[in-house]
Design goal:
The complex is a heterodimer of chains A (349) and B (879). In chain A, strands 3-2-1-4-8-9-10 form a seven-stranded mixed beta sheet, with helices on both faces. A three-stranded antiparallel beta sheet of chain A has the order 5-6-7. Helix content of chain A is 39%, strand content 13%. Chain A is globular. Chain A has two domains: 89 residues; 233 residues, Rossmann fold, CATH 3.40.50.12660. Chain A has ten helices and ten strands. Chain A starts with 11 loop residues before the first helix and ends with a helix. With 879 residues, chain B is an all-alpha fold. Chain B folds into six domains: 98 residues, Serine Threonine Protein Phosphatase 5, Tetratricopeptide repeat, CATH 1.25.40; 60 residues; 47 residues, no CATH class; 242 residues, Neutral Protease, domain 2; 123 residues, Tetratricopeptide repeat domain (Serine Threonine Protein Phosphatase 5, Tetratricopeptide repeat, Alpha Horseshoe); 72 residues, Tetratricopeptide repeat domain (Serine Threonine Protein Phosphatase 5, Tetratricopeptide repeat, Alpha Horseshoe). In chain B, helix 16 packs parallel to helix 18 and helix 38 runs antiparallel to helix 39. Chain B starts with a helix and ends in a 5-residue tail after the last helix. Classes of the chains: A alpha/beta (349), B mainly alpha (879). Chains A and B meet through helix 7, helix 9 and helix 10 of A and helix 44, helix 46, helix 47 and helix 48 of B. Bound molecules: zinc ion (ZN). Zinc ion (ZN) binds next to helix 27 and helix 28 of chain B. Zinc ion binds next to helix 27 and helix 28 of chain B.
Amino acid sequence: MSRRRRIMGLPTAVVAVAVGLAAAPHDARGQDAHLLVVVGIGGDPAYTERFLEWGTTLRTAAMERYGLPPERAVLLAEDPSMSDAIAGESRRERVEEELRALASRAAPDDRVMLVLIGHGSFRGSEANFNIPGRDLSAAEYGALLDALATSKVAVVNTASASGPFTQLLAAPGRTIITATASGGERNETQFGQYFAAAWEDGEADLDKNGAVSLLEAFQYARSETQRFYDDANLLLTEHALLEDDGDGEGSREPGMDATDGALAAGFTLGAPGARGAVTADGAVSPIPATTDSVLARLYAERADLEGRVAALRRSRSSMDPDDYDRELEALLVDLALKSREIRDREGGE
Amino acid sequence: MRRAVAAWAVAVVAVAAPAPAATQDLAEARAALFAGRYDDVARLARGDAPAALELRARALLDTGEYDAAIRLLGGADGPAPSPAVERWLGEALMARGRWDEAEAAFSRAEAAGAPDALSARVRRGELFYLRGRRDEAFALFDTFIDVYNGAPRLSADDLMAVATAVSYLGRRTPVLFQDALKAYDEAAAAAPGDPRPLVAVGDLFLAKYDAPESHASYRRVLDANGSHPDALLGEARALEFDGAPGTLTLANDALETNPNHVGARVFLARQQLRTEDYDQAREQVERALEVNPRSLDALAVLAAVHYLEGDRTAYAATRDRALALNPAWPDLFNTVAELAVDTRKYADAVELARQAVERDSLSWWGWGIMGMNQLRTGRIETGKANLERAFAGDPYNVWFRNSLDLLDSFDQYRIVETPHFRIMLHGSEADILEPYVTAVAEEAYEALRRRYGTEPPTPIRLEILRTSSDFSVRTLGERGLGALGVSFGSTLVMDSPAARDEGAFNWQSTLWHEMAHAYHLAMSDHNVPRWFSEGLAVREQRVARPYWGHRVSPAWLQAYDAGQMPPLSQLNDAFVRPAFPEQVILAYFQGSLVFDWIESEWGFEVIRSFLSGYRDGRSTNDLARDLLGLSTSALDDGFDDYVRERFAAEFASTTSGLDPTPLGRAAGRTGPVATDVESLRTQVRQRPGDFQARLRLAQALVGADRYDEAEVEAREALRLFPTYGGPRGPWHVLAAVHEARGESGEAADALRSAAALDESAVTTVLREAHIRRELGDADGERAALARAVEAWPFDVEAHERLADLHGAAGDTGGAVRERQVVVALEPADMAEARYLLAVALRNDGRPEDARTQVLRALEIAPGYEAALDLLLDLRGGTS
Ligand SMILES: [Zn+2]
């Protein structure tokens, strides 16, 4: 149902051509996104299947919606015979190998997302994500990530007892998402399911800019997880955290204007059908590439208006509500008119 | 001086000590007393030595032979054979209410410096207290603190006396209860095996609402002496506190040992009053007063009997009799107040509690009753203030604390005002419930006003509490099995739908039921019998929506047919003292049938006349004779004829099978256990007219994918019992059969028929909606979804879909309502939710509200093209 909102949006093909994403996932300025999904040990067939399904959903979305080629969307899992999508067994040697390969392959401006799906454990000070054979500790993941050329790294640990990863892996430029707030939340988690689903379609594009950001995927997954527990009348036993300011303290409610969230807001796997291109800092720019100088000016003006809306929103709490609404409306009307101009111009191309 | 007393005591014992063999006997007599072998005490404690007399007197006191004890100890006028037993003479006289003679005996013990002079002295203080001379009592009790602090070592009796005095002082200074406890514990250590300190500790814990500790103390006594009457009564009271069964048995056991136990008789009388058994209660309390004509507790219960029977003259006489003994005694009023609450006379309870605290401003119980009942009558602020006062004086009271905690949580609630209501909704769900609750509440108000031709006092306060535990606290003391709502008159309190699982109940139907009570209570001035109001309220549910309210069930049919349900004239018994747990639920349904019958035979007008008749204090039998022209037996017979005729088919198909009756189930009988098709088919062959066997066979056949056979059995079950509304009924079976065969239209119709018999069939109607959507039956889908969100308003997708369907059908207001609820449910995608609400508002001709919503959408998502277009559109821009 929520797909209906897209009917008034720009025709996808036009935009894709405009930003050069139609066939080649490699965008104009040469940043790539890399996804490594590690599905851990299930313990029983039901979990094994469910975890694999989530991992596959995420990988498929990355490829089909965000245009990542298979070699940059790698899925490791317990039993490679279960699916052709699985590149290899999720043992520590193979995980290390994939991360080392990334270290040599990913350029300094590339984005890397590592997603862990499965069960976790926490004993004493040791936080683990459970894979076949010997686990890799949080510290070991940290060492492998430190070897990457890029600092634009997102680690998403959707497992139970994943909370300690927040602190253990925090680093400048890095976003850490965990399904639980601490090592003590040991019950099976639902977060991973909704985090994977967030990338599937436009549902999680909460600000309607055409791309799902890591922040939006987190917000969507947190909200759907909450709903899952509400519907089942269960006590919420997982409290997801997002940390991206490098201080090791995750936030329950990150946002553009909160302590955590600004970096994650700019992290995407790409921009399917969006009018924006991916900029150097990883954020979706409101200024698509174009050779039409009139359009280029219009895009810039629209970007300016959007920036002013964002600035106004940040000062909301200090403003009189009526003044705020008046100013907001004035900006939005300008924005609406600008969007029409752009559409007319684009339509005329 | 104290030490001198102690030394003297030793001397007396030494002088009076009989021969060594007798000492041995005395020790055995003491052991016999502690073990409850009372006959042995008399045999072993021979002679006139004070120690022997004391043991024999205590045995007589335990067994209620008070007059024999008085004779043994020298007669009522005294003096006793020895100062050492004057105090026991006093105890025996106290038990018979002979206060003056008792006081004289206690004074003689003190004057003579008896070894237990402190015990005599504390009893004198208690006598002051009983007579309402509280200042003198407290002055006397005050001296005991010095006794304790100044003495290096006190006897067990002295420690008991100190503890008793200090526990009285605790009424002014609550923390002193700890000191009392300490002294009792020391007394118990100093007199191993003596039940008295242990019983006192149990009583003290119970007074401080610590049932587990009180049980532990009473148990220690009962382990040694299983028939100790005070411990048995204490245990009964502790069980009552827990809400556990078995209280009556224990109280009767206490009377077995001591048939003159006034406390046990008063306890029983109170229980009987709570079950509206006035005659039994009166008999018990009169027997108590024969033993002790000055028992204030017995007089209070007697006053309550008169009060509840509406005999205000007799009430006033009994009240004055008690107040003549103790003009400052608050608990007469508190007792009557508390029992008045049982019959829903909340305003009376407030007034009675006011009289209690006027007599004794330290009556925390009185302040508490006043506060609790002010809350029930909607006076939240005053009620809270009085509860706080009560809790400050009685900080151990768990009820006061829970209620205050709940009141503190009221700031998480929001008040929504409508023409006739003030509706309290929890902030987390207020926006979700508001559109529905305001509509159904006003609809109920208007529909019932038209029916009853009058109005309850307004505004009606309707509290919808977020959790069941909050609901339990708010409705504390109210009876009702698994109640979902309660009506205190114009204050209604109920569970939010979120307080229970999806499909557990239909909160709108419950709201209507409680509203009906508000009318009944107002029209009868709170004098309507419970069965009448409950039955009529259930009928009102069905009148409002045919699918609401209780349905005829095999359980009721079986119970009624087996004589397990009372006749109409005694239906109240099933509410106030159900013979088996399920009887209450069945009585709601049976009560509703009474009004189906009366309304169809005599018209609704006569029901209104009943209510005004109750207001005038008239009885059901009396009113039935005047209004229906029926004697009690004709009334019962007429109702019986009515139900037997109306449900002839249902009785025939449910009462001859293998299933046990509800009473049988309560007694542990189980029904047929076979679940395999062949055994079930055999059962059906043996009893072709047995609905339940038929239904089980149909269910089993569906489970085995044998759809054609299942359909035959389900249709036969339906013919046997067309209105069965229980789980997995014939319509459900038929729906499953049709779905399996791909007959979607028939499946949807079967689900609709099933839902028509079950007010909270959320899953059923959602399934129906799904099928109708696939069939392209928009109207049918819309109706089904409306049923789903009525009972369970927390399903985002149902509201989204319903909004679309309302919009397509031109119900723009309905679309707005559903879109508002979607926003209130806070889906992840708020920009879209607000945008679609804006569209609905625009379509409903509310451009200003639409503009506000579209701004909120764009604030989240400034690049949202559709919303930008709508904004221009709303400003009259061209598009
Ligand atoms: Zn009721």
